[in-house]
């Protein structure tokens, strides 16, 4: 399980070029009408809210998948889910490297729900108080994102509600450095993440971890047979 926490953190860290592209511009929206200090506080609150949403998703998915596995009495079900998570890591790596964009099809699955949720977040803009960025971040955590969906497959095989929450929390913390720095105007971070060299290294790292996860899961399945 410790390896999953570390893996989720690293995937969040390496995959945030996608997050920055989708959410990085929100830093400007959160800064409207605020000074430097209030803008910084708002950006921090926003990211805390976003990570809380991820953790909630992880808790729900982790608890639900574990309960269903226990009720169905299928001992191999979590192992198969782990193989699915390995496949999702490989798909994510291909997307990060810009070699295949199949991950975008997965994002479309959440657009139906998002169109009902997003107006709640827009009502909070412009922010009247810095802490209003917290509920805004919680709502914006529901933004359809293939990177988040990929990480959720790990929460599904985490083994429980708390474990799922912690894995998604680790993933969220991994995205935090880039999101904070871009939100505070550090454009060099965005330029780095858009560089072909960084993308290639990040993509290969994620794909290798996916292959490792898949290999270990298949061995686990063979041992259980």
TrEMBL record:
Tell me the superkingdom of the source: Bacteria
Entries under PANTHER family matching the protein: HEAVY METAL TRANSPORTER, HEAVY METAL TRANSPORTER-RELATED
Report which residue ranges the record marks as coiled coil: none
Domain (Urease accessory protein UreH-like transmembrane): give its ranges. Answer: 8-212
Per UniProt, the keywords (alphabetical) are: Membrane, Transmembrane, Transmembrane helix
Which InterPro entries does the UniProt entry name for this protein? UreH-like_TM_dom
Query: What protein name is recorded for this chain?
Result: Sulfite exporter TauE/SafE family protein
Q: Where are the transmembrane segments?
A: 6-30, 51-73, 79-101, 131-152, 164-186, 198-218
Name the Pfam families on file.
Answer: DsbD_2
């Amino acid at each position: 399980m410790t390896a999953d926490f570390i893996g989720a953190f690293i995937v969040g860290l390496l995959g945030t070029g996608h997050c920055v592209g989708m959410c990085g511009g929100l830093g400007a929206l959160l800064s409207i009408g605020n000074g430097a200090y209030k803008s910084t506080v708002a950006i921090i609150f926003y990211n805390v809210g976003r990570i809380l949403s991820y953790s909630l998703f992880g808790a729900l998915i982790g608890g639900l998948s574990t309960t269903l596995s226990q009720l169905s009495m299928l001992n191999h079900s979590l192992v198969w889910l782990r193989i699915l998570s390995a496949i999702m890591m490989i798909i994510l790596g291909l997307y990060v490297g810009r070699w295949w964009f199949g991950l975008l099809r997965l994002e479309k699955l959440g657009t139906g729900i998002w169109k009902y949720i997003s107006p709640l977040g827009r009502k909070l803009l412009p922010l009247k108080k810095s802490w209003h960025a917290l509920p805004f971040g919680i709502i914006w955590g529901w933004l359809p994102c293939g990177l988040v969906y990929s990480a959720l497959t790990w929460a599904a095989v985490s083994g429980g509600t708390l474990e799922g929450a912690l894995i998604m929390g680790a993933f969220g913390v991994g995205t935090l450095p880039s999101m904070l720095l871009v939100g505070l105007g550090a454009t060099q971070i965005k330029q780095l993440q858009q560089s072909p060299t960084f993308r290639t290294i990040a993509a290969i790292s994620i794909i290798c971890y996916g292959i490792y996860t898949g290999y270990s899961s298949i061995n686990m399945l063979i041992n259980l047979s």
